[in-house]
Amino acid sequence: MKQDFYQGKVKQYNxxxxxxxIGTTEGDVFFHISDFPAEEGEPKRNxxxxxxxxxxxxxxxxxQIERIDPNPAKTKKTQISNHxxxxxxxxxSNFRR
Length: 97
Known about the structure:
Keywords: DNA-binding, Phosphoprotein. One of its GO terms (molecular function) is mRNA 3'-UTR binding. One of its GO terms (biological process) is regulation of mRNA stability. It comes from Acinetobacter venetianus. This protein is an alpha+beta fold. The chain has a domain at 6-68: CATH 2.40.50.140. It is built from 1 helix and 5 strands. Strands 1-2-3-5-4 form a 5-stranded mixed barrel. It starts with 5 loop residues before the first strand and ends with a helix. The model has no long low-confidence stretch (mean pLDDT 82).
């Protein structure tokens, strides 16, 4: 049976207790740190993730959590920088004509 994956953002995480919540359009989903990829460090607020869901005592729990974008701030900064370079190059090419 194929397992559906959902997407969301880490809404909150408590490192002392080892759990947090992922915000989705359907609502918040509980996760435990043991279901998060440990080699990439602790989850960060607003970090995009995809995950599968299982029912746990009448509530939903995220499992098989994977990061979609491990460093959203750096990615956004890189995208802005690349966009600015493209605009600058285009403007300079217009002056050279």
